[in-house]
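Memo to structure team: turn this sequence into C-alpha cells by end of day. - J.P.
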Amino acid sequence: MDRMNPEQLEKTVHAALRSLPLRKAPATLEARVLAEIARQASIPWWHKSYAYWPLGARIAFLIISGGLANFVLFAVVYVQAGFDAAQFTTAFGSWFDFGARTLGAFRAVLDIGAVVVRNIPPLWLYGAIAFVAAAYAMLFGLGAAAYRALWARH
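Reply from structure team:
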C-alpha cells in the first residue's frame, strides 16, 4: 500500500468508501426541511430581497427613489450655488409647499444652536469631549470585563 502511485491509491480509497453502507437521515429531517420551506414561503414580500418584490412595488420603489434622488441633487446644487431662497422656492414650490417654511424653521434652529455653541467656553467643550471619551472607554472596559467573566470560562 505504501508504494502505490496516486491513481491506484485514489481507486483503492474510492472502492473502500463505496463499500460503506449509506447513512440514514434523521427521522425529523424531512419535517424540519418542510417546516423551513413553509416558513420561507410565509415571509411577506417586503421582508425579502428586492428580486422577490411584486413588479408594481419594484416600479413604485424606482419612481420614488428617482424622485428623492432628483430632490437631493437639486438641493445640493442650490446649496452649492449660494442657496438663493427665492430660486429654491420657485424650483420646489410645486413639489413641496411647506419647503420654504420648513427651511426657515431649520435655519432658525441652526442659528440658535450656533449662538449657544459660540457662548459655551472652550474649556467646557473640551471637558465634554473628555467625558464622552472616558464614558466610551469605560463602556468598552465593562463590556470586555463582562465578556471575560461570563464567556471566557466556557
